[in-house]
Fold this sequence. Notes:
Low-confidence stretches: none
Strand content: 15-25%
Number of helices: 4
CATH architecture: 3-Layer(bba) Sandwich
Radius of gyration: 14 Å
Order of helices and strands: HEHHEHEEE
Strand order of the largest sheet: 1-2-3
CATH topology: Glucose Oxidase, domain 1
Amino acid sequence: MSEVMKSLNIPKGVRRVLFRTLNTDRRLMWEKRFDTSYVGFTKDGAQWLKDNTDIKLVGTDYLSVAAYDHLVSAHRVFLKNREIILVEGLKLKDVEAGIYDVHCLPLRLYGAEGCPIRCVLIK
Length: 123
């Protein structure tokens, strides 16, 4: 996974990235059953992204940023010291690759470790 992250050539200074993966092409967010074969981060991919970019927000197009077999290890990398915000469950079907302004509007839930948000992309 670290090779995949390296091949993306994410420029320094980019602080937010949304990943539209095969999860969207397979329409996994529209399925009623949870699919453990979804695309997600492994520990080494998450570590490479954290160590080699300025990313502070990672968004993905399924219910977890971490691959099913790496749930704990990849989440630990991202959430250590609360340096990176995770946005999961994005519907990116009609979003083309490109540069956008992204604004995430969370519900304010006191005492919660996560909450629903609405993300707005502006081209």
